Known about the structure:
The complex is a heterodimer.
Chain A: E1 5-7, E2 10-13, E3 19-24, E4 31-37, E5 44-50, E6 53-56, E7 65-69, E8 75-79, E9 88-95, E10 106-107, E11 111-115
Parallel strand pairs in A: 2-11
Antiparallel strand pairs in A: 1-3, 3-8, 4-5, 4-9, 5-6, 7-8, 9-10, 9-11
Chain B: E1 9-13, E2 18-23, E3 32-38, E4 45-50, E5 55-56, E6 61-64, E7 70-75, E8 84-91, E9 108-113
Amino acid sequence: GAGVSQSPSNKVTEKGKDVELRCDPISGHTALYWYRQSLGQGLEFLIYFQGNSAPDKSGLPSDRFSAERTGGSVSTLTIQRTQQEDSAVYLCASSELWSRSGNTIYFGEGSWLTVV
Amino acid sequence: DAKTTQPNSMESNEEEPVHLPCNHSTISGTDYIHWYRQLPSQGPEYVIHGLTSNVNNRMASLAIAEDRKSSTLILHRATLRDAAVYYCILRDPDYGGSQGNLIFGKGTKLSVKP
């Protein structure tokens, strides 16, 4: 597609359930980012992929959060045993790994997660 | 990424120019200055970026200080649709490892009054 695609766009889940959020980056973009944004708050960096590898996972809030990327393309963010404080919009972004333009980052519309 | 400092909020009247400042005193020689904005209930979107020279595009202008330790995003005629949070960040195009951790600050919340 033309832009970063995320699914689902909205998800309501019960506390304790697992959820998977998917990100389909712009074709050819090597770098992929996940962010979380709670209502009225700033962007919280979660994890960054360079190809299929994540050099730094320290931004993930807890061990209930995991992310993977396969084939250098689609990424999945998994939240296990969801808690109410996990309610937020989860944003994915992608960029070229290197370019003379200084790596413009393109964001998806986000996946709005509500844990009830 | 090097740290940037922005005012928490600014106000503007519709159809007047807006100058949004950003300080980045620890910028390195290879860092590009990027601006993004986030409209309500949307993901951030690219506005403009530059390295040393001032830049203009359809959305805005970017004025970069000669020493590159500060920059200013200029909206020539603010509209109600420009009400958003504006983020100034620094990007090194040749990065790897932890340099890929792209950290956004709190940005400047711009309010536009009719």
